[in-house]
Amino acid sequence: MNIDFDKFIDRRGTSSLKWNVADGELPMWVADMDFAAAPPIYEAMKKRLEHGVFGYAVVDDEWYRAVQSWWSRRHGFTPKKEWMLFSEGVVPAISSLVRAFTAPGESVLLQTPVYNCFISCVVDNGRKVADCPLSYENGVYGVDFAALEKCLAREDVKLMIVCNPHNPTGNIWDAQTLARIGSLAKKYGVTVISDEIHCDIVQPGFHYTPYAAASEECLENCVMCCAPSKAFNIAGIQTSVAIVADEALRAKVRAALNADHVASPNVFAIPAAIAAFNEGEEWIDAFDKYVFEGRAYCASRIENEVPELKLVKANATYLLWVDCSAVTSDATDFQKFLRKETGLYVQEGEAYGIEGKAFVRVNIACPRSVLEDGMNRLVAGTKKYIAQKQ
User: Rounded to the nearest 5°, which phi and psi values hold at 322?
Assistant: First the structure.
């Protein structure tokens, strides 16, 4: 397979959300890679395109087998065919399920800082966020189980969203942590949605545990939302799967997805996913190696040139979560300064909850030349920001 992650592909003028920026700006914010799709995905979509007829599509048996095979051989978890439900995306599914499992005015438990779309899925649907912040000590994130149990015990909390691996911190939750979450959730009658979209972006040598595989309690009380979109950079194809073992829970999920009309694939969604899961292993292994080498490069640059910034240690995702608290208590101001003075566009951490107020998130899924440019801008901008504050 021909894999060249160093190749620069100009995405300006392609209706790209990420690259819809001014000339001279470098976007490293939204979680969207700058790499071409894996060759098997491209070939599968090309074949479908050349057919020339683009009517309604269905989910065929090969899709179910591809999902089963991928999770079995990559993650030691084999979902049954009947557990799987197609959806257009993880976020659309979560939005539907927030309405299905809670009533207006009820609360959804989130462990902040956390993916900002979780927050909007809750608030935009007329529900409340029950904020249960992760612990953060000596640069390491963890679950505060005393606080978690207190939140789960609340009468108004009916649903919890877990991010596994965690965005933006890059934590891989181990099986014991997930099982303990599952036990507490079941104890208090709280349904769990686990977003596993970053599960295949893991540092070589480290292991991710699917939430549903952590324990029987987890399996019986969760909706596990998965997709090839993040790992294979095909978010625009709109393809994902909800895995639900419990029959009654699955019936509610199916009804919710159908009611919101997000359960039918477009003509490329199924062949793209099948190609990713059946033929994408070589590509994703090479990508993980490349992105974590890039992460090591960034860690060295930050530590040696702007030690005032602290890169949070992580073993998953292609996102840097950078602690700016020694530089400023308001990283949004820092983020705006970087963009104005250097053109570097990173994500302000406050988007992920108030606990992220002193952080920025940086997307490093790009060719090394672009990454070096980004780090040059970050270093220069940080030094200038510190100087003008003195």
Answer: -110, 120
